[in-house]
């Protein structure tokens, strides 16, 4: 019986690499990566949020220079290498839209809906995303890690124009939250509804988009100043203008997502089949 169990385990080990995990990635902020305790705490947290083995994920370190290259001209902030804490995990085998989990005990400002909006603006409409940090962080800089996790999982770059547009959109959302006193999720809903109309009508003119923003804000009882409405319109216009640069990335994303989903299904079928054989043989042995 022990030999039988060992044989099945060996068979699983042989099969697993053939149908290995794809579209599964983790990015670590460089400050976290260089601190063994922090890195281990992030791996433990990510492991608690997935049934997969995090050691199978393709990993990458997000540096301060990478974050600053995208966000510096938008937020006006420059991050030193000692302040890149946030980490992200992306799994493309999840194909039922975008499911974002944010560790709210550590990420204090940006919500799952806000990350989902930023991803949508880069043409990303599916995937399981987990964001955390070993210490308290606003979460704005974490977007760089989330986007890089997608790049690693997909194996293709997201154009800088799209990254900057997503960063600007997220930054504008946080600014509007602070200025209006509205909840982050309510402002995220405003952006999401406006973006849906902008994409459906393929609008790139900020003046036209501003009308949509004002109408939606009024329907949601959100009082925006003219300047705030213009800021939102400008960020959504930039996101829409970046869509033409995303064709190659979106095609590769769709391909990898399909492969990851099918791979997961095949592995599950194999495991179920092996389990049924094991159960059958076990019943024969126990019946003797």
Count of individual domains: 1
Structural class: alpha/beta
Give the neighbour order of strands across the main sheet: 2-1-3-5-4
Large-scale geometry: globular
Q: Radius of gyration over alpha carbons?
A: 22 Å
Oligomeric category: single chain
Largest sheet descriptor: 5 strands, mixed
Mean model confidence by pLDDT: 86
Organism: Methanobacterium spitsbergense
Protein name: DUF1002 domain-containing protein
Pfam family, one: DUF1002
Describe this entry's structure for a reader:
The chain is of the alpha/beta class. The chain has a five-stranded mixed beta sheet, with helices on both faces. 62% of the residues lie in helices and 9% in strands. It has one domain (2-265). Residues 4-21 and 265-274 have low confidence and may be disordered.
Provide a compact summary of the structure.
The chain has 288 residues and is an alpha/beta fold. It has eleven helices and five strands, in the order H-E-H-H-E-H-E-E-H-E-H-H-H-H-H-H.
Write the layout of secondary structure elements.
Layout: H1 2-18, E1 24-29, H2 30-33, H3 36-47, E2 58-62, H4 64-75, E3 87-91, E4 98-102, H5 112-121, E5 127-132, H6 142-154, H7 160-180, H8 184-201, H9 206-219, H10 226-241, H11 247-287
Parallel strand pairs: 1-2, 4-5
Antiparallel strand pairs: 1-3, 3-5
Any key phrases for this structure?
globular; alpha/beta; 288 residues
């Amino acid at each position: 019986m022990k030999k039988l169990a060992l044989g099945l385990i060996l068979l699983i080990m042989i099969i697993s690499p053939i149908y290995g995990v794809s579209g599964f990635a983790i990015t670590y902020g460089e400050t976290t990566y260089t601190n063994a305790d922090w890195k281990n705490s992030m791996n433990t947290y990510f492991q608690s949020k997935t049934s997969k083995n995090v050691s199978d994920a393709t990993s990458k370190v997000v540096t301060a220079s990478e974050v600053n290259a995208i966000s510096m001209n938008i937020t006006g902030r420059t991050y030193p290498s000692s302040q890149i804490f946030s980490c992200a995990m992306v799994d493309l085998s999840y194909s039922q839209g975008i499911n974002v989990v944010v560790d709210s005990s550590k990420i204090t400002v940006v919500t799952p809906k806000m990350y989902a909006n930023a991803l949508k603006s880069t043409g990303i409409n599916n995937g399981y995303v987990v964001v955390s940090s070993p210490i308290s962080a606003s979460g704005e800089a974490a977007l760089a890690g989330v986007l890089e996790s997608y790049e690693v999982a997909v194996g293709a770059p997201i154009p800088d124009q799209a990254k900057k547009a997503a960063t600007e959109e997220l930054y504008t959302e946080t600014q509007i939250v602070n200025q209006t006193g509205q909840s982050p999720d309510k402002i995220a809903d405003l952006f999401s509804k406006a973006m849906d109309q902008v994409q459906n009508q393929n609008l790139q003119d900020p003046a036209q988009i501003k009308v949509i923003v004002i109408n939606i804000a009024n329907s949601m009882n959100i009082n925006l100043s003219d300047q705030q409405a213009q800021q939102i319109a400008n960020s959504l216009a930039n996101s829409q203008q970046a869509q033409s640069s995303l064709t190659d990335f979106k095609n590769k994303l769709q391909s990898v997502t399909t492969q990851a989903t099918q791979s997961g299904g095949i592995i599950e079928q194999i495991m179920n089949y092996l389990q049924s054989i094991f159960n059958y043989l076990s019943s024969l042995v126990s019946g003797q």
